[in-house]
Design a protein that fits this description.
single chain, 154 residues, mainly beta, M1 Pyruvate Kinase, Domain 3, three-stranded antiparallel β-sheet, 37% strand
Length: 154
């Protein structure tokens, strides 16, 4: 049996941050650029090119806070049907793009500036999502399939 999920996930939302600490703009599609990140996004290069949250985990952890807009997390990508917990090192096919999960995105204090209690709510394992680098670039659209892929043999 493969490491992947029994069914595919989906891209639920995409956001671009046009400036450091700037607003997150919802978009219907985004250009993922290999070794860089998202076109037009303030954070480029390095190991933290794309931040990802799981729709299911988001709603599970924020349920006690009432209705919370996921844009407050300031992630670039929201997926459904994909479990991000303990996914470090795994490859995630996101539409036609491929990203490598490099680690857990720990929730920071700035989340409480957006909504009191949000940092604490997202503190449990991988509640803040994951960060990744783009391995293969492509245009990714809301509604695209998302699935785990096996690493090529080396």
């Amino acid at each position: 049996m493969s490491q992947g999920q029994p069914s595919d996930g989906r891209v639920e939302a995409l956001w671009i941050k046009r400036a450091q600490r700037g607003p997150m703009d919802a978009v219907r599609e985004a250009q993922f650029i290999a070794r860089r990140g998202l076109a037009g996004n303030a954070d480029v290069g390095g190991r933290r090119q794309v931040t990802i949250i799981s729709r299911e985990r988001w709603y599970e952890l924020t349920a006690t806070l009432g209705e919370v807009d996921p844009v407050l997390r300031r992630a670039n990508l929201m997926v459904s049907g994909i479990e991000l917990v303990a996914s470090r090192g795994r490859l995630l096919q996101t539409g036609a793009a491929l990203v490598r999960i490099n680690g857990e995105t720990r929730p920071c204090r700035s989340l409480d500036f957006a909504l009191e209690g949000l940092q604490h709510a997202l503190d449990p394992r991988w509640g803040g999502g994951a960060y990744a680098e783009v391995i293969e670039g492509a245009v990714v659209r809301v509604g695209d399939v998302v699935q785990w892929v096996e690493a090529p043999e080396t």
